[in-house]
């Protein structure tokens, strides 16, 4: 009698098994990718942290490569640029962090432009200049933060006093609304509507370009703090009274009236004349 051959039953594979297999593959691939990304990110962060810790020697190298052509290898200055002996780290930070230096071209005044160095590079070059020939340094935090002087608890921040001091000492060039203004021979006083507290202080202490130096005999540290607090308050306050028109006073207001006011009267006169005809 012939033995019957048993055939193995071939059933259909469940669709859930395929979906589970695909899901497991995606999870495995995602896990490997996430681990690799985290490792690369940690390495990148470590490299970034290492690159931000620049030394005075790094600042010297940056200065030699970017500044020595005009200011000299020893900060002595040349025919193309002034000496930096005694200007201090605060002046270097101001000039580099506002994009005024390196100078793009000779002119009546160095304009602001995009910054070409990182904060760490700027600090390193400023530290190098300070190490060679010291000058004005960075202020204490309470000065630029508009806080009370910790050495004198009775001395509180006075924004009204700062605004008055600004009108007396600065408004003739920078405009009473800190909108800037024109000077002689193509020079100008820049607007202070977006200038940082540190750079306002640096300008008062170092006197860049056409600005005079305000020493402690002219304005005390507390007075400088009040001026900074008043300007920062003005930057953060929403202007009231309608359009500012550039905060240029009678000039822009008169131009606005001349163009739109008289223009509207002329248009109305022409319309009335056309109707009468």
TrEMBL record:
InterPro entries: bc1_cytC-su, Cyt_c-like_dom, Cyt_c-like_dom_sf, Cytochrome_c_Oxidase_Subunit, TAT_signal. Residues 54-133, 157-235 form the Cytochrome c domain. It catalyses: a quinol + 2 Fe(III)-[cytochrome c](out) = a quinone + 2 Fe(II)-[cytochrome c](out) + 2 H(+)(out). It is found in: Cell membrane. It is a multi-pass membrane protein. It comes from the Bacteria. Its EC number is 7.1.1.8. Keywords: Cell membrane, Electron transport, Heme, Iron, Membrane, Metal-binding, Repeat, Respiratory chain, Translocase, Transmembrane, Transmembrane helix, Transport. The chain crosses the membrane at residues 255-274. SUPFAM superfamilies: Cytochrome c (SSF46626). The cytochrome bc1 complex is composed of a cytochrome b (QcrB), the Rieske iron-sulfur protein (QcrA) and a diheme cytochrome c (QcrC) subunit. This is Cytochrome bc1 complex cytochrome c subunit. It comes from Microbacterium bandirmense.
